[in-house]
Design a protein that fits this description.
Strands 1-2-3 form a three-stranded antiparallel sheet, with helices on one face. A hairpin with a 2-residue loop joins strand 1 and strand 2. The chain folds into two domains: 128 residues; 140 residues, no CATH class. Helix content is 65%, strand content 3%. With 373 residues, it is an all-alpha fold. The chain contains 14 helices and three strands. Helix 4 runs antiparallel to helix 5, helix 12 packs parallel to helix 14 and helix 13 runs antiparallel to helix 14. It is globular and about 60 Å long.
Length: 373
Amino acid sequence: MSKRPIFRLIPYRLLPGVDWVLITITLSLIALGILTLWGASSLGEGPVPLIGEARKQCLWAMMGLLTLPVLILFDYRRLRRSVWVLYGVLLVLLVGLLIKAHAIKGARSWYDLGFVNFQPSEAGKIIIVLALAHYLAGRALVFRGLRQTAIPLLIVGGPILLIMAQPDLGTAVVLVPISGAMFWVAGIRKSVVVLFVFVGVAGALLAYPHFRPHQKERIKTFLNPGADPLKGGWHIHHAKTALGSGELLGKGWGQGTQTRFRFLPEYKTDFIFPTIGEQFGMLGCSLVLVLLTLVIWRLARLAAVTQELFGLFVIAGLTAMLATHIIFNVGMSVGLMPVTGLPLPFFSYGGSFMLTCMVSIGLALSIGARRDL
C-alpha cells in the first residue's frame, strides 16, 4: 500500500494546532482599522469612496493576509539556517540609509522604491527577534549572569545605534523591551535586570543633553503639556480633545471634527487612537483595547505551550514588540507617555508596519501549529 504524498499530509497535521481565535481577532482589528481610516477621510458629508490611505491600507492588509497561510505552512525552524544572512542584510540596509535615503519629516528611515517607501527598521524588528532567539535557544541553560549578555547586547546594540542615527528614537526604544522580554524568558537573573534598569535610567539622563531639539521638546511637553499649547503641546492637546469629544458613543463614522478640519496632527498614523475615540467614543476605544489585549493574551498563551526553545523566544519577542507599540501609542495619546511616533498595530496607516504586524502573527501561528509535532 503506497503512502500518501507528504505535501497532502502536512496541512491536515497542522490544522488542529492553528489558533483560529487569534486569526479571527486579527481580522476584526484589520477591518476596524480600515473602517477608522476610511471614516477619517470623510469631510463630514457621509460615506466617501474608498480612496487615499484607506484604500492603500486595504491593499497592504490583503498582502499581509496572504502571508498568513504561507507562514503557517512554512516550517519556521528553517529560518535558523539563514538568520545571520538576514541579520547581515539588515545591517547593510541600515548603513545604506545613512548614505542615501528618502527623508520624511527629518528622518532618513526609508528607501524610495518608486512605487512604495520601504522602511528597513520595521522588518529589522522581526530579524533581530529571530537573531536573538537563535542565539538564546542554544544557550538557554547557561544564560543567567551578566557575562552571558555580552553577545546578545551586541546583536541588539548595533541596529539600535544605526536606527538612532537616522534619527528614529521611537523604533530604537522598541528594541529595548523586546530584548528584555527575551532575556527574562531565557532565565536571566533578577539582579542583572535591576542592574540594566539602573544603567538604562542613568544612561538616559546622561544622554539627554545630546538629544535633538525636537526630542527634548517632546519630553518637556510630556512633563508640562500646557506650557506651550500652540507648539509642543499641540499634538497632545488636540488628541485629548478628540478623545473627549467622542464621549460614550462617538460623533459617528466620518463625523470627527478634529480630523475633518485637520486640527489633530498625524490622525491617520501616530494619533489614530484619538481618531477612533472621536468617531466611535469610549465604547469604540474600549472594544479596540479589548481586542488588542486578546491578541497579546493569545500570543502569550502560544508561548506558554511551546516546548521548542527557538519558537518560544520568537513568540516572546514578537509579543513584546506588539505590546510595546500598543502601550506607547495609547499612552502618548492620553498624555501618559511622551510622544514617540510609534504606530498602533493594525490601525495606523503604513505598509511596512502592517506587513510587520501580519508577519509577526503568521510566525506565531506557524510556531503554535507545530507545538505538538
